[in-house]
Specification:
single chain; 328 residues; mainly alpha; Alpha-lytic protease prodomain-like; Alpha-Beta Plaits; 2 domains; three-stranded mixed sheet; 8 helices; 3 strands; elongated
Length: 328
């Protein structure tokens, strides 16, 4: 499914690129050139995204024990670099044409092509973003976001061309290109930052919160405490590990069954491949005030209340002994 989506993006981007370059050669508009150059980025990015999704689909091996999913973040980062390079060329070209004042013609054709391209990119970008979120694919998500922004840029290009066409103020064409290039720089830097953050295992707040909500909604009273929760993203796959406190009087078989059920529960949080590692801790006497097990055989202190699990205390590598503080 992922590969078919990227192939669709590649073919559409290729067709749009050809149409935009035709419009540029017919009109000589710098604004249309900037739009056409960004289409090259779309084509190259889609091609690399296809290859990265292919690599990400390969099974784990001895050299890549966590799989190949992180290559999708490289695809996202490369797209950002290509956008920056295209923006740099646009800056130089637009600045030269700001003083050269080249003759512009057939702007009506450029307006029609730009408006049509923006509409197609907007529809395809929205579809890719929705599919990228549902499949947790960074490559598809980045491609979709870029196409959506490209559609907005296309609307900006149309507005600039219409103003130039109506007023005959040809300097507007170059100024619009400079503004367009600035927006592209912002897009490129944002994609690069997101890719670097993901490669450095920066926590995705949305995914982390979804895991927490799933755990809390399925919590059992035997799960006395949970901490050191970590969620790492490997492309479209997730790796989750945590420490779970269980009653210390349980035998090994019961602990094994409970951990298996816990892993199955978390494994349903998202429709993607999830690898789960759980470290088991035995309960301590200090856990009694927030342990809700009613028939505990070794309770030393009276139950007070359960501790609310949230994104702050679940991420810390410490047991939670009460709602006022953490264990030392």
């Amino acid at each position: 499914m992922k590969q078919r989506l990227i192939i669709l993006s590649f073919l559409v981007s290729l067709a749009i690129m050809g149409a935009k370059f035709y419009a540029y050669y017919a009109s000589g508009s710098t604004t249309l050139l900037t739009d056409a150059l960004e289409s090259i980025v779309n084509v190259v990015a889609a091609a690399f995204a296809y290859y990265s999704i292919y690599l990400a689909s390969l099974p784990r091996d001895l050299n890549h024990p966590y799989g190949h999913g992180k290559v999708e973040f490289f695809a996202s980062g490369l797209e950002g670099v290509l956008i920056l390079l295209a923006a740099l060329y646009i800056f130089l070209h637009a600045w030269q044409h700001l003083y050269a004042r080249p003759e512009l013609k057939s702007l009506d054709l450029g307006i029609i092509i730009s408006l049509s391209s923006a509409t197609i990119n907007g529809i395809l970008g929205y579809y890719l973003v929705s599919q990228g979120k549902s499949s947790h694919s960074p490559a598809i998500l980045a491609d979709g976001k870029h196409l959506k922004l490209d559609a907005l840029n296309g609307v900006f290009v149309v507005v600039a061309l219409v103003i130039t066409y109506v007023t005959n103020l040809f300097w507007i064409d170059s100024v619009a290109s400079l503004i367009f290039a600035s927006v592209m720089c912002w897009q490129g830097l944002n994609l690069i930052r997101e890719a670097i953050a993901a490669l450095m295992d920066e926590t995705n707040p949305e995914v982390f919160q979804k895991v927490i909500q799933w755990i809390v909604s399925n919590k059992k009273q035997e799960w006395i405490d949970l901490h050191n929760l970590r969620v790492q993203q490997y492309g479209g796959d997730l790796h989750i590990d945590c420490h779970l406190t269980l009653p210390r009087y349980w035998d090994l078989n019961r602990v094994h069954d409970e951990i298996h059920e816990f892993e199955v529960t978390i494994g349903q949080v998202m429709p993607t491949d999830i690898e789960i590692f759980v470290h088991v801790d035995p309960c301590l006497d200090e856990c009694c005030p927030h342990c809700p097990i009613t028939n505990c055989q070794i309770r030393k202190q009276t139950f007070v209340k359960e501790i609310e699990w949230n994104k702050v205390n679940l991420a810390l590598n410490q047991k939670h002994f009460n709602d006022q503080g953490l264990s030392s």
